[in-house]
Amino acid sequence: MADRELEEIGEDNTLLLVDDEEPFLKRLARAMEKRGFAVETAGSVAAGRAYATARPPAYAVVDLRLEDGSGLEVVETLRETRPDCRVVVLTGYGAIATAVAAVKIGAMDYLSKPADANDVTAALLAPAGDLPPPPENPMSADRVRWEHIQRVYELCDRNVSETARRLNMHRRTLQRILAKRSPR
């Protein structure tokens, strides 16, 4: 770990990670601890909000879609309890609308999964107003399409007919897409 990273983190190195995907949460927590952060984890909106209220951290990484609600609720709580908290929103379902909503309520940055600890650290420690560098391994067009279809499918409560109607797609075509593995 570089001394420069410790200087950038500052004296208050508390970091709250909120994600309902436990293996990812544990991996990211270990990686962020190695980078000098004092990490606390939460697996739900309720746990994230409780931690943010009791001990507001200096930094936070919040998954957008959690089993019990939206991670934006945690971001709002963090903004109320600690306005200077540097928040990064993570999600597996990248969309412009949610990115705009996250930034409007106070998130500094918005990263699509799979984001590694280096991406997260760079986003948390980026000077205010700096534009992040372009991703080194952006999602392919096929992957972006697949992610969008999955998102709409989930929003339609996994109803194939309704999803096909909203995507203006034939139902059988959608069923074939959903049956395949995700593209890289």
Automatic annotation (TrEMBL):
InterPro entries to which the protein is assigned, alphabetical: ActR_PrrA_rreg, Bact_response_regulator, CheY-like_superfamily, Sig_transdc_resp-reg_receiver
SUPFAM superfamilies: CheY-like
Gene Ontology biological-process annotations: phosphorelay signal transduction system
Gene Ontology MF terms: DNA binding
Sequence positions bearing 4-aspartylphosphate: 63
UniProt keyword terms in alphabetical order: Activator, DNA-binding, Phosphoprotein, Transcription, Transcription regulation, Two-component regulatory system
Keyword Transcription regulation: yes
Name of the featured protein: Photosynthetic apparatus regulatory protein RegA
Annotated source species: Pseudoruegeria aquimaris
